[in-house]
Amino acid sequence: MCLFPKELGIPGPLRVSRAAISGAGRIADLPFLGRLPLELVDMVQSHCPDAYFWNMVHRLNHKKRLRFRQPMITTLIRKDLSCTKSWKRGKAAPDSEERLKDPECLCITLDSDGICEIQRLQNHPHPPNHDPNVKFRRHVLTNEKDVKSADAYFQDGLCCLRAHAAHPGFPTWDLPSGSWLLSNTIN
């Protein structure tokens, strides 16, 4: 199920390391992949970027980048997304709170590596504090109605969202404050 629209245009990871490709190749019993030229690997990946193998490659690549942080719990943690207060990539588990209530909302920040931050905002129109110099980020602003059927899974400093089949998907903006900022800058 696609939670974020394809039109969002989040750029894919720039390039994964050869070590991650080799590691995933060994796990999948394809040891020769680590010896292929990266240009050829990029061509193969472009034909099936969402395949399980490439997800495994990106996970190994994330683990490599996060390994210099403090050791963290490696068990899978499942949380109701509406009970998440805050989380940043690299943290083992989110800060939890009671269920989301109106007028509160969640801001889910996406970058080329996936979900990088989740934070609860007290009011929908106020933008979160983000570094304007960071490019290629998209922000999902969602209220209680949107998150009640979505779960968040946390493991090894990474987050994955899963929604039930009837979930409508999240509205997504390329600005941290959504349409509120757009309407106020045009007027």
General description of the model:
By secondary structure, this protein is of the alpha+beta class. 25% of the residues lie in helices and 24% in strands. It contains five helices and nine strands. Strands 3-2-5-4-6-9 form a six-stranded antiparallel beta sheet. α1 packs across α3 (52-66). It is elongated and about 55 Å long.
Number of helices: 5
In spatial order, strands of the major sheet run 3-2-5-4-6-9
Category by helix and strand content = alpha+beta
Distance between the termini: 37 Å
What is the rounded Rg?
18 Å
Measured as a percent range, the helix fraction is 25-40%
- Elements, N to C (H/E): HHHEEEEEEHEEEH
**Coarse shape:** elongated
Number of strands: 9
Mean of the pLDDT scores? 71
Number of domains: 2
Largest sheet: 6 strands, antiparallel
Poorly predicted spans: 173-187
Strand content: 15-25%
